[in-house]
Structure prediction request, 343 residues.
Amino acid sequence: MNINPRAQQLLKILIERYIIDGQPVGSKTLAEVADLSVSSATIRNILSELEGQGYIQSPYTSAGRIPTERGYRFFVDSLLTIKPLAEHEIFTIRQNFDPDKPAQMLVEAASKMLSRMTQLAAVVTLPAASHTVLRQVEFLPLSNTRVLVILVFNEKEVENRVIHAERAYSSSELQEAANYINHNYLGQGLDAIRKDLFDSVKKEQVIFDLKLQAVRDLAGKAFEVGEQSAELLLSGYTHLLNADESESIEQAKALLETLQHKKDMLHLLEGCIGAQGVQLFIGQESGHQMLGDCSIITAPYELNADTVGVLGIIGPTRMAYEKVIPVVDITAKILGAALNSTG
Prediction:
């Protein structure tokens, strides 16, 4: 339904006032701050129309009104004015990200910084292992069939893995296998390398290449990433216990249990990976009943020109959207820049 300019102004003021102090807003208060040169009776009529259209509601404890999910949605989509962050604010965010740090440490820094700056719960997905780009591999013999694998990812991350090969390999065989992989597969993802090696072995059915078989055996185990989705980091979710919308200790506990059940939250966030820019879920839009009094603001971040993760915040629907949205947006951009830096 269309809302006339006067009603839009009243709705905007009502929501802004409610966000600030958390109390139902009455017609008398609106008459004092709206500067519309209209009577309180006219304001009451406008509020009745807005309530009839589902943008506001009257709590049973007060004659004042508070926004509904529909009201918040209209406010965010049509009435909200978002100001870019000041240069010193961007500088403060950037100071949290050392481009020489590994990806997981950068993601952890993003989660903690978001929670600290917004005083809300922060959620960040780690890049899935399938997005890991190989820069170098080395195989070293240990004992029997055990082999130490040294992997270098994305220019600056080093990981050691111990695998059990199909047979014992000499140092020269391991060096030859590493040379083959480093020569043919640098800059590719682990999943792609494993698939190509398995396909190559199938093509060698007539002339069986022992060297290629050794490479397939070692790489198949060393590059195994499993079928897990991206992992999720949560920071500051106890901030939600302070939300006025939490009507009881039981509800607050149930909310925390929902957040700690990361599978459902991952499903929601991974659905944002293909989206462009900031996404906002208000109340039941998230699809989780226990988040009905919360809003979720997310933004994707990139690695090697691919969107590999999502970060965001979870807080009460009564949050300062104009302040939180730009923080989430710029943090995603700075995190992506740090991940893509080669130091």
Q: What stands out?
A: The CA atoms of residues 22 and 244 lie 7 Å apart. The first strand starts at residue 56 and ends at 57. The chain has three domains: 5-79, 87-128+231-340, 130-222.
